[in-house]
Specification:
The chain contains 14 helices and no strands. By secondary structure, the protein is mainly α. The chain folds into two domains: 61 residues; 278 residues, Orthogonal Bundle (MetI-like fold), CATH 1.10.3720. Helix 6 crosses helix 8.
Length: 343
């Protein structure tokens, strides 16, 4: 019996040793799993997630439409320079109204100082009435910009509405509107402006209205062309099926998705309106004298071009720089809104 008991104890001891070994292995494996996987997964995963959330999240964050357009616009150096020039002209037009007095600095005559060449006292010289050309050019920015902006607002409101109706409904409405636009487009803008100014009289308000009517067909055609591919989209059909009114569909769903070419056209339209206003003023049918509009200043100085060239150079440069800046802004916006066009 002694050998049997000893053998049993030895077998039991081996079994207990095996269990303890297994238990020990379990603890070891558990500790290793917990320590290794916990530390590696915790530290590595935490560090990676921490870096992504702090540094990479902004990079991959979805940008708004304005932010994306501004990001693309900043890549165009000429468009950025044009933007700063336009902002400077707007600032000059605003500040000059508070710095200079209209009666004493703009229209008051000083015959003793007439036709003086550019100097330190008068950097742009004086005109045939002794008025400072620099002051009049700075003050005249208000008239050129106001005519351009108000005329574009009038033409865009009329043209966009007609183009939206023509593009959305099609059929007879589209044919009538397009024939109406073709009639106005066939008449030169200056000639149409002369006819309207002659019929309604010469004033700043009539000039804005005349230029707005002249350029309305251009916005109508642009809007119609932008609306045509949008009106057949599935979300437009879903809005119709849902019982949404046509007016709401046009202005809430169709127009916002067709704005890109319209915005570009509006920006360039300001330049065209300023150029047209200057042309009419040069012909004596725009802003009435003695308002220092750049076109009327050119008209006043053309009789002295041979001996006093500066009377036409500085107003002409003001028109050229302003029109060129708005055109470059329009090109920059076109490339920013649709980068594929640049390629």
């Amino acid at each position: 019996m002694e050998p049997y008991r000893n053998g049993k104890e030895s077998i039991g001891g081996k079994m207990d040793g095996a269990e303890s070994a297994l238990t020990g292995n379990g603890n070891i494996n558990g500790n290793i799993d917990v320590n290794i996987y916990g530390n590696i997964n915790g530290n590595t995963h935490g560090n990676i997630n921490g870096r992504i959330s702090a540094a990479e999240l902004k990079k991959y964050k979805k940008r708004s439409l304005f932010a994306e357009v501004w990001r693309n616009y900043k890549k165009n150096p000429s468009a950025m320079i044009a933007l700063f020039v336009v902002l400077a002209i707007i600032a000059i037009a605003i500040v000059s109204q508070f710095v200079f007095d209209y009666k004493t600095d703009i229209v008051q005559q000083n015959i003793r100082e007439k036709l003086q060449p550019p100097s330190l006292a008068h950097p742009f010289g004086t005109d045939n009435y002794g008025r400072d050309v620099l002051v009049r050019v700075l003050y005249g920015a208000k008239y050129s910009l106001s005519v351009g902006v108000v005329a574009v607002i009038i033409s865009s409101v009329v043209g966009i509405t007609l183009g939206l109706v023509a593009g959305y409904y099609g059929g007879l409405a589209e044919d009538l509107i397009l024939r109406f636009c073709e009639i106005f487009t066939g008449i030169p803008s200056i000639l149409m402006g002369v006819a309207l100014m002659t019929a309604f009289g010469q004033s700043l308000g009539v000039l804005m209205m005349a230029i707005g009517i002249v350029y309305a067909p251009m916005y109508c055609r642009t809007t119609r062309a932008a609306v045509l591919p949008v009106r057949d989209e599935e979300y437009i059909e879903a809005a119709r099926v849902s019982g949404v009114s046509d007016l709401r569909i046009m202005f809430s769903h169709v127009l916002p998705n067709a704005l890109s070419p319209i915005i570009v056209q509006i920006t360039m339209g300001v330049a065209s309106a300023i150029l047209c206003a200057s042309g009419l003023s040069f012909l004596g049918l725009g802003v009435p004298i003695p308002m220092p509009e750049w076109g009327s200043m050119l008209s006043e100085g053309r009789d002295f071009m041979r001996d006093y060239m500066y009377l036409t150079i500085f107003p002409g440069l003001a028109i050229m720089i302003t029109v060129l800046s708005f055109n470059l802004m329009g090109d920059g916006l076109r490339d920013a809104l649709d980068p594929k066009l640049k390629e």
